[in-house]
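Priority: medium. Attachment 1 of 2:
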């Protein structure tokens, strides 16, 4: 079904690290910006429920985050910025 709607395969890249402060956010944001500049559609998801900070790096002020989605307080679509 997905192939019929979007013939291009969905690609995902996960950036992980064993501890805080090693640059996961900066690497993720820079990869996302580079892909977007090449015309790719990009969605960044900061799954660090306690210390997510991609919004800070990008200067965004989201109303909801992933923890709101997981608790059923909003939909994923509502949490997207």
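Attachment 2 of 2:
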């Amino acid at each position: 079904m997905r192939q019929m709607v979007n013939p291009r395969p969905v690609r995902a890249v996960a950036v992980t690290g064993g501890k805080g402060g090693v640059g996961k956010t900066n690497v993720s944001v820079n990869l996302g910006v580079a892909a977007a500049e090449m015309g790719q559609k990009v969605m960044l998801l900061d799954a660090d429920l306690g210390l997510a900070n991609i919004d800070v790096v990008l200067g965004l002020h989201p109303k909801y985050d992933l923890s709101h989605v997981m608790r059923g307080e909003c939909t994923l679509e509502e949490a997207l910025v």
